[in-house]
């Protein structure tokens, strides 16, 4: 894990997730074996699932205060559609002839949403925060990444409150069991977040 030497920027930490998905998708498209594609698909699914839920239980709760009224609700609606697509990819066989298309629909929806956040929302967030608040929100986002499920649960609450956190904690435990029993393998990520335990 990277070490912390300065105040964190929440938009930078969110963009790291976006960039990891971009990189993993590029690697997936270049992969030549089914085994390599399966590992990259597992990693894409995990990263997209974790990212969406982490935003919902952390930064989105502050959007109205940051001058983005209604944007959190809009983002959650997009997340709900992305989760359905990611769930379809998680449920499909990586050996299927159609799998590239199924996974591609999820990744493209995720990246379209990521582009919207980066282009329309990040500037407003940074303008509304001083360095301490920005760092605090970044830490909250990184802590949330450690607590949320690692697989998509499209029927789970998206309130960003206690219900989502409670269901998420159960889901995170359940997902670890499923991943361990299923022997899922994951690829290394190109971009690393700071270690939350050092913050």
Task: Give a description of the structure.
- It is a single chain.
- The chain is mainly alpha-helical.
- The chain has a single domain (10-198), classed as Four Helix Bundle (Hemerythrin (Met), subunit A).
- Helices cover 67% and strands 0% of the residues.
- The chain has helices at residues 10-30, 34-57, 71-91, 99-128, 131-147, 162-182.
- The longest helix has 30 residues, at 99-128.
- The chain starts with 9 loop residues before the first helix and ends in a 17-residue tail after the last helix.
Question: What name is given to the CATH topology?
Answer: Four Helix Bundle (Hemerythrin (Met), subunit A)
Structural class: mainly alpha
Distance between the first and last residues' Cα: 12 Å
Strand content: under 5%
Any idea how many domains?
1
- Count of alpha/pi helices: 6
Number of strands: 0
Q: What is the typical, i.e. mean, pLDDT?
A: 87
CATH architecture type: Up-down Bundle
Largest sheet: none
Oligomer: single chain
Give helix and strand order, one letter per element, not per position: HHHHHH
In terms of per-residue confidence, which ranges show pLDDT below 50 for 5 or more consecutive residues?
A: 162-171
Query: Radius of gyration in whole Å, from Cα?
Result: 16 Å
CATH class: Mainly Alpha
């Amino acid at each position: 894990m990277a070490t912390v030497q300065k105040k964190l920027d929440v938009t930078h930490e969110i963009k790291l997730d976006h960039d990891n998905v971009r990189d993993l998708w590029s690697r997936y498209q270049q992969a030549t074996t089914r085994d390599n594609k399966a590992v990259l698909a597992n990693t894409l699914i995990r990263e997209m699932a974790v990212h969406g839920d982490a935003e919902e239980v952390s930064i989105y709760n502050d959007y109205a205060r940051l001058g983005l009224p209604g944007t959190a609700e809009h983002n959650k609606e997009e997340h709900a559609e992305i989760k359905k697509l990611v769930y379809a990819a998680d449920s499909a066989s990586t050996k299927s002839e159609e799998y590239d298309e199924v996974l591609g629909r999820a990744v493209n929806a995720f990246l379209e949403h990521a582009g919207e956040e980066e282009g329309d929302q990040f500037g407003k967030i940074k303008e509304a925060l001083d360095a301490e608040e920005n760092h605090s929100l970044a830490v909250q986002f990184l802590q949330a990444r450690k607590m949320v499920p690692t697989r998509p649960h499209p029927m789970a609450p998206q309130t960003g409150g206690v219900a989502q956190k409670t269901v998420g904690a159960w889901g995170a435990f359940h997902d670890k069991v499923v991943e361990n029993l299923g022997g899922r393998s994951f690829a290394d990520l190109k971009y690393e977040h700071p270690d939350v335990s050092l913050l």
